[in-house]
Amino acid sequence: MLAGAIAAGRRELRSAARRLRLGGDWGWRGGADGGGGAAWRPPLAPPLGQRGAHSQPPQPQQQQQQDERHTFDLVPGTTLSIAVRRPGSGVIVRNGAHDAVAVAGPHLAVSRAGNAIAVADDASSASACSVSVELPQRFCGLAVTTAGGAVEMAGQLNEAPLEIESKGGAISVSRARATDATLLSAGGPVSAGELSAARVVLRSGGGGVEVKRLFSLDVDLSSAAAGRRDSDSGGSGGSGGSGGSGGSGGSGGSGGSGGSGPADGGSGGGGAGQAGAAPPRRAPRSAGSVGGGDVRLGAAYGQRASVETGGGALRAAHVSCAGLLSADSGGGEIDIGGLEGCASLLSRGGRIRVHLHERFESCFLDSSGGDVEVLISPGAAVASLQVQAGGGVRVDAALRVSGELGPTSCAGTIAGGGRGGGAAGAASAADAAAAAAEQAAAARRVGVPGYSTEAAVEAERGSGGAGGAGHGAGAVWNASRLARAGADGGGGGGGGGGGGGGGKLVVNAGAGRVELRALSWMEAVARKVRAGGGSADRDRL
């Protein structure tokens, strides 16, 4: 008996020691007869967030995908092409070593052939990912394509081509001084701190565009929705029903292309328009109704620039274009805080506000019914002025108009301002409006497709005298000068950029109103500081 009890006790001790090595705790287990005894319970698994280093590893489907890193030696002229095909997957670009290119991301297919490096992700995976890129600051081109994912270029790119296509994702560029730059977002917003290239192509497809500093010889910028062009949206009144230039004796004496319908502001096309009073003012279009994004520019310098907003607003702190700035807002507002060089601005019903600097040359403004406000710096001379406005023209008291003004070329009323000798025989406002209605068929249109082009600017440059040659009737002032009231001969206190003693200003507001306002030296300097280096306008943009 005693020996058997001792043996049973030893077995129990060995069993208890084995249980202690396995872990667990002791609890009370009641028996069926009401008795009980000590019983061992296995350990409970701790929560996932509290597992330590000795915890069981997670299941394979719970493991995060590990990024693969690929590094290549840089050869000047190398181009890195990245194709991210997973929906929503993005790309972020930073600067790394000056002699290497690095790419990191999950399941990347990488190949290199000479100076071309191609990277593509695994399109079969449905989960979104992020591809990180490290580029040298110079001599390495970049081409990125995503399927709706955002592309952020946090570093710099210099002396190499840049191409980004996001297909709906946002595009952000910190600083790029590229040989050529192409940014296509297909609906996503586009922003850039500094963008410089020989040629810049930027199309947002309806998304907003914001560029603080833009330098280029040739700029093609559009925020209009894909598949829609402003020239197909009904056009401005001057083009009539057929989209012709609508001039009866255009610049250089050439006739219009024969528009078949009446024009805004009482102007017809090629002499075939219907005579009558000016139509009601056209209301500006809503940016949301046509799908165009707003375009905001800080400072833009270039040779040629084409801007189309598709109904969105165009706001720029300063624009200098030696060749031609051609802008079409499709109904949106146009506001340029400082303009130099040549420009053709068409708003199709939107308001236009422009500040002419000293070095402006030729400026064509067509609002198609929207109000127009022109601010003139003290040193800006206007050697040739033509204005048509069914809603009337208001001239600052500090300005003087000299030249011909009569009932056959006056639409609306004239308020404020001094009048030169040529304006002394002006008829009353009622007679002028009636005469303008009779002359509606032959009224001259400006700033419409087919006329406000680079050819028209060149024709204006080559025309002699104040106002040029071959101008038809229909303008409030035809072959006039605009100058400071105290200036001799209407010179206007300083040389303008027109090469012939001043620039050319042509305004057609249709049924809208026109205001010509002179800025003082203090106002002009303050606006230049804000537009060029101050923070007020930049914060507003």
From TrEMBL:
Bias (Gly residues): 24-38, 234-274
Organism: Raphidocelis subcapitata
Protein name (Swiss-Prot/TrEMBL): Adhesin domain-containing protein
Start-end of Low complexity biased regions: 275-288
Region (Disordered), start-end ranges: 24-69, 225-290
